[in-house]
Design goal:
heterodimer, A: mainly alpha, globular, B: alpha/beta, seven-stranded parallel sheet
Chain lengths: ~220, ~210
């Protein structure tokens, strides 16, 4: 049965206009494009797949679940510290912090009780505030279920990547819709499989990590990552 | 779950936030460079955020100016969306401002310089308490008549580079009159940031309208 209330929540939180600063993060699209390693829709679709399959599905999704089922703030913070330890690239860590803290800030201002409590912990520990952990907090505050939270986490990553590619002129607006459709199938396939509950978060996206890590050394830079 | 049931209230936000927008090249960074010493001379504790469009040039310019502790200058990337980062989704700027307040608890005023645009940008009221729009004489004396949202809706319109008027055929008095007319006589200030002219009037209005000092 179609759940209108849940669907409307998904539309609101999954909207690219949701004010969480996501538009300023390209997660490697800008760097790869600058190095001529990303020059069209095929390349972009490959990049989106790599992000989803080898980082989001094995890392963000696992951390999101840990934070989503965490019984208290300390358990959430433990997931956050795991995110910190499992992300060797300083720029990836910084990007995840900035994106997470921005999203958390919106939820705090909207009055999310868990977000407010967790935000208070962040000021004492600079390692906390990674995006997938904060997504769990925000979606819990919003009353969004875990299945929908996973969907939102994966989909907002996809729309961010594709939107960055459009703004950088890598693809046009019609190609963007084609890339989004392709990504929907990838995400659907990944979500059809449930990771084991004891699996450790991991990622293997060396090209993306290198592209993001090179960001600070680039003179021309429009995105945070 | 005990901790979740007793949420801590967020820290009180105390610093006033002033946006400085306007077209690329109108002199926003030059205005910030003039405002920093002028505000500090009046004992106002400040910090700065820049929204550079393509490079971190403006932030670096201010950090290296020697006018302010470089740690008090933050750069926020705009993701090729200079309007979005100050209007529809100012979250990253808000976070940067909150972070500056956490690091410098005594800060009273945060200047947020936008990355530049055409004439259409405005600042979200969730981001700034007060905002200025900077245009320059070299852009032509017809800019006020174009009635861009920045020109019309800003709390103060600053017309910069007044010294260029004779060289670009601009009638300054008429430009000023027309600016006042399209703004229903709300403040229009004239500056020449290169020589520091008109800066004290900008500081006066910030002190009076933003910091509520007589």
């Amino acid at each position: 049965m179609f759940d209108t209330e849940a669907a409307l929540a998904l539309l609101q939180y999954g909207d690219s206009a949701y004010p969480a600063g996501g538009f300023a993060f390209s997660w490697g699209v800008e760097g790869l494009s600058a190095d001529d390693l990303l020059s069209g829709q095929v390349d972009l679709d490959d990049l989106v797949f790599e992000h989803l399959a080898f980082r989001w599905n094995t890392m963000d999704r696992i951390l999101l679940r840990r934070a989503f089922i965490a019984a208290d703030l300390d358990a959430i913070a433990a997931a956050d510290r795991t995110a910190e330890a499992a992300t060797p690239s300083a720029q990836m860590r910084d990007g995840s912090h900035r994106a997470g803290r921005a999203l958390l800030g919106v939820s705090v201002r909207l009055g999310g009780s868990l977000a407010i409590a967790y935000r208070a912990m962040l000021s004492a520990d600079a390692r906390l505030g990674h995006l997938p952990v904060v997504q769990a907090i925000v979606y819990r505050d919003a009353g969004i279920g875990f299945e929908a939270a996973q969907l939102l986490s994966g989909w907002t990553l996809v729309t961010g990547l594709v939107s960055a590619a459009v703004r950088l002129g890598v693809i046009g607006h019609i190609e963007a819709q084609q890339s989004l459709a392709t990504a929907r199938h990838v995400l659907e396939a990944l979500l059809a499989e449930t990771p084991d509950s004891d699996v450790q978060p991991s990622s293997f996206t060396p090209l993306i990590d290198i592209a993001v890590s090179r960001g600070p050394s680039r003179h021309v830079r429009m995105f945070s990552t | 779950m005990k901790q979740m049931l007793t949420p801590t209230k967020p820290a009180r936000i105390s610093a006033a936030r002033v946006g400085i927008g306007g077209p690329v090249g109108s002199g926003k960074t030059a205005l910030v460079e003039r405002l920093i010493p002028a505000l500090m001379a009046r004992g106002i504790d400040i910090a700065v955020i820049t929204n550079d469009l393509v490079t971190a040039e403006d932030a670096e310019r201010i950090r290296r100016s020697g006018l302010i502790d470089p740690a008090r200058v933050s750069a926020v990337e705009a993701g090729a969306c200079p309007h979005t980062v100050i209007r529809e989704d100012p979250t990253l700027n808000i976070e940067a401002a909150d972070e500056l307040e956490r690091r410098f608890p005594g800060v009273e005023l945060i200047l947020l310089e936008s990355g530049g645009d055409n004439l259409a940008s405005t600042f979200s009221r969730d981001l700034t308490d007060f905002w200025m729009f900077v245009i320059d004489v070299g852009g032509g004396d017809d800019i006020p008549r174009k009635r861009g949202p920045g020109v019309i809706r800003s709390d103060v319109l600053v017309i910069n580079k007044t010294d260029l008027a004779p060289y670009v055929g601009v009638d300054l008095d008429r430009m000023h009159r027309e600016a006042l007319a399209v703004r229903d006589n709300r403040p229009v200030l004239m500056t020449n940031c290169r020589r520091g002219e008109g800066i004290e009037a900008v500081v006066d209005i910030i002190e009076r309208e933003v910091l509520f000092r007589a």
